[in-house]
Design brief:
Layout (H helix, E strand, L loop, with lengths): L2 H4 L8 H11 L11 H5 L3 E3 L7 E3 L2 H23 L2 H5 L2 H4 L10 E4 L2 H13 L4 E6 L8 H16 L3 E7 L6 H12 L3 E5 L6 E4 L3 E5 L11 E4 L2 H16 L2 E2 L14 H11 L4 H8 L3 H15 L4 H16 L1
Parallel strand pairs: 4-5, 5-6
Antiparallel strand pairs: 1-2, 3-9, 4-7, 6-10, 7-8, 8-9
Protein name: HTH luxR-type domain-containing protein
Organism: Streptomyces gottesmaniae
């Protein structure tokens, strides 16, 4: 690069520079202490070899033309470099298939440790809401992990974060989960329970979604994905609220179910089963098809958050005892 190519770094000229050039071009005397470095660098003036302290002006149009030519060369080189960038981006088709990485909208977290670490980072940075859906039946967990979860939840609630957690109804009968949820609820978390199955997920600020792995075979059981595609997270959030709106508040689970919440047809089916008739025998006895009986029993199980007809009949027996006492 020539010296002239580098002179563009001196632009823009300051008002004082313009005034100094005017004085030199008109043959005037410069006041002492004037700085002409930028004008010399741009080749607008040169020191007069025969008159110390004086300067020779040059045609500014020639300087402008030379700077324009240099800028156009730089622009041409930049345009040429940019034209090669798409070829670099296309190399991703060779990179992505060989990495446990789902592109720019999700990231695979191969172990439980990685999942917990990323969840911790994202939860700590949460600004608006943390919502979780835990559809599976509860199991005893490491007390240290539970304490960490409680600490994270308390910290979020203290910052004014909305915390909503949805559990399976069976979690209410699990002592460890009951204690954990009780502590969260006491600190201000909103907790509900549902008998309907759903996908396990954690959504933070409507921007981060954590889900189980359903992509890679033979992966660790607790591996998963951190998804930050806007449409995918929004869809998952809508799914969560579908289950949430139909769920029962955690504090209401302690209230005994009322047999009167069932329809007369449902109660008649249960009375027949309680009398010892099989599900196949109940339909003809009360004028319903076997399919209609099965449908009503499924509605009862869903309404009560139970998994089997045996559990329904056990509940029916308890409810009968409460009413007769």
């Amino acid at each position: 690069m020539s010296e002239l190519d580098r002179t563009g770094d001196e632009l823009p000229l300051l008002p004082d520079d313009l005034e100094i050039y005017r004085i030199i071009a008109e043959g005037g005397d410069l006041p002492s202490g004037q700085n002409v470095d930028r004008l010399v660098a741009l080749r607008l003036v040169d020191p007069d070899p025969y008159r110390p302290g004086k300067y020779v002006p040059h045609d500014p149009r020639a300087v402008a033309k030379a700077l324009t030519a240099a800028a156009l060369r730089d622009l041409s080189q930049l345009t040429d470099r940019m034209s090669h960038i798409p070829a670099l981006e296309r190399l991703a088709e060779h990179f992505d298939p060989h990495r446990l990485y789902g592109g720019p909208s999700s990231e695979y977290l191969a172990t439980a440790e990685q999942m917990n670490a990323r969840l911790g980072e994202t939860t700590t940075a949460a600004a608006t809401e943390i919502i979780t859906l835990q559809p599976s039946e509860p199991a005893d967990r490491d007390p240290a992990i539970l304490r960490l979860g409680i600490e994270r939840t308390r910290a979020a609630l203290a910052r004014g974060i909305l915390v909503r957690s949805l559990y399976h109804r069976s979690a209410y009968e699990h002592p460890q989960t009951q204690q954990y949820v009780g502590q969260m609820a006491a600190d201000g978390a909103d907790v509900r329970a549902s008998g309907a199955p759903g996908p396990r997920m954690v959504i933070i600020d409507g921007r981060h979604l954590f889900i189980d792995n359903h992509v890679l075979e033979d992966a660790e059981p607790n591996s998963g994905w951190h998804v930050f595609d806007r449409s995918a997270v929004a869809w998952a959030r809508a799914v969560f609220h579908h289950f949430w709106d139909q769920a029962t508040r955690w504090q209401d689970l302690s209230k005994p179910a009322d047999r009167r919440a069932l329809t007369e047809r449902q109660q008649r089916i249960l009375r027949e089963l309680d009398a010892g008739y099989s599900q196949q025998q109940v339909g003809p006895r009360i004028g319903l098809s076997e399919r209609a009986v099965a449908k009503e029993l499924a509605a009862i199980r869903e309404g009560l958050g139970l998994r089997s007809t045996y559990q329904v009949m056990a509940w029916w027996g308890r409810a009968s005892t409460v009413e007769s006492s």
